[in-house]
Amino acid sequence: MAQIYTVHPQDPQQRTIDAIRADLLNGAVMLYPTDTVYAIGCDINAKAAVQRVRQIKQMSNDKPLTFLCSSLSNIAQYARVSDPAYRIMRKLIPGPYTFLLPATKLVPKLVQNPKRKTTGIRVPDHPVCLSLLDSLATPIISTSAHFSDQESVHGWSKKQEPLSPAELFDHFDKQVDLIIENGQDLSTKVSTILDLCQDQPAVVREGLGWDTLSSEFAWV
Fold first, then answer.
1. What pTM was estimated for this model as a whole?
2. Partner of 155 for a Cys bridge, out of 136, 182, 202, 207, CB 3.0 to 4.6 A?
3. Is the pLDDT of residue 155 over 60?
C-alpha cells in the first residue's frame, strides 16, 4: 500500500515536503496533484523509478515523458530555447502548458523522444508542485494519471462522471509508493501542448489554458 501524505493546498507543510523529497531521492514513484490533472511522477534522475512510471502507464521507451521544472531559467538547463520560444513561454509560465523543445544532454534518454531528441516540459502554477521542485532541486516526471478507458479527446476525459479522489487513490494504491492528497477536487482537463522546436509554433493538443492562448497569440 502507498504511503499517503496530506498537504495544505496553498501552503504545503515543509516537514511533509521534506519527507516526500527523501522518498523521491530513494527512488519512490508518487501520485500527486498538479494545476491540471493528478500525475504519476518521480525524480527525473531515478532511472528505475522512471522505468516504473512507464510500466504503470504502459508506455514504450519511444514515447517521451513530460517533466516539471521550477522556472523558465530552469527549463533552459534541460532544453534549447530559441528567442521566439522564450518570448512565448515568458507569457505563459507558470501555467497549464506543456512545451515540446529540443533536449539538452541533461535530459535522460529514457525520458526524451529518441528520434527527435525532444522533451516535454511544464512549469506548473501549483504550490505543492513548486514546493516539491524547490526542495528536490531537480525536475519531476509528470504524466497524467487516468484509467485505461479514460484516454482524453481534446483534453477532456471520455468518462462522463469525474473520478473522486478515493477512486483515483484506490486504483493506484498498489502501483505507486506514495500518494499526495491536498483535499481539493480532481481536475479532468489536461495541459495544452505547444511544439516550439521550430520557428513557427504548433499546437499539438488543446487543453486547459487554450482560451487564454488563442486570445493572446495571433498565430493560434
1. 0.91
2. 207
3. no
